[in-house]
Write a structure and sequence with these properties.
With about 210 residues, the protein is an alpha/beta fold. The chain has 9 helices and 5 strands. Strands 2-3-4-1-5 form a 5-stranded parallel β-sheet, sandwiched between helices.
Length: about 210
């Protein structure tokens, strides 16, 4: 009957919403950024349009991106929309291709690893690293904010190298210049990024934060 049909539709829709909520929860996308869709990104300059076009293309063709493991580095000053476009990519790819994406700052990732060294730690270092090796897409925020110690470089290399071997793409977000990012990540990581046609997208305009739209 029409009533049973409508009830089934409502039930399916509720289940779909729950699955999406759970997926978002696993993705670790901060509450503040969960509405940062690609459609909502307003490009007012050609450079911004270039960045938006890159993000649209990357998200819409994520099946191909996932096959090659093609990664990207978004570099530019704070407040220029790097997080918005990266999260927009994740939201669209999660919705269209049913992938798992994870957003994490380098600092948070390193803290989690350090916590595993405590005597009463509930998880091992490998278990924590797996959280960031397994997702189809990893967004690594605030690259280069830290000291650049051997521990940091080795930890990031372990994650990136494992993802590289499994052809899993990573998007790096950094407020540094590209040569500073390269120095921080190190040659081994940069080589892996370049190999699969990794892109460097510059965010060269002023910060949008605090401006009236």
């Amino acid at each position: 009957s029409a009533k049973a049909e409508a009830e089934k539709r409502a039930k399916d829709e509720a289940a779909r919403r729950e699955r999406w909520k759970a997926k978002l929860g696993r993705a670790g996308i901060p509450e503040r950024f969960r509405d940062r869709t690609l459609q909502a990104y307003v490009a007012t300059a050609p450079e911004q349009q270039f960045a938006k076009d890159f993000a649209e293309d990357y998200a819409n063709n994520f099946a191909a991106v996932r096959k090659t493991g093609r990664s990207a580095i978004f570099v530019g000053l704070p407040g220029t929309g790097k997080t918005h476009l990266a999260v927009g990519i994740a939201l669209r790819a999660m919705g269209r291709f049913d992938i798992d994406a994870v957003f994490v700052s380098v600092r948070h990732l390193l803290l989690q690893v350090k916590h595993t060294y405590a005597k009463d730690a509930a998880r091992t270092e490998l278990e924590v690293l797996q959280d960031y090796i397994e997702p189809d897409l990893l967004i690594l925020d605030e690259v280069g904010v830290q000291k650049g110690s051997d521990f940091e470089k080795d930890t990031i290399f372990d994650v990136i190298n494992a993802r590289y071997e499994q052809r899993k793409p990573t998007i790096f977000l950094s407020n540094l210049q590209i040569d500073e990012v390269a120095a921080y990540l190190g040659e081994r990581v940069m080589d892996r990024l370049k190999e699969d046609g990794g892109a460097m997208v510059p965010f060269t305009w002023e910060s949008d934060r605090g401006k009236q739209h």
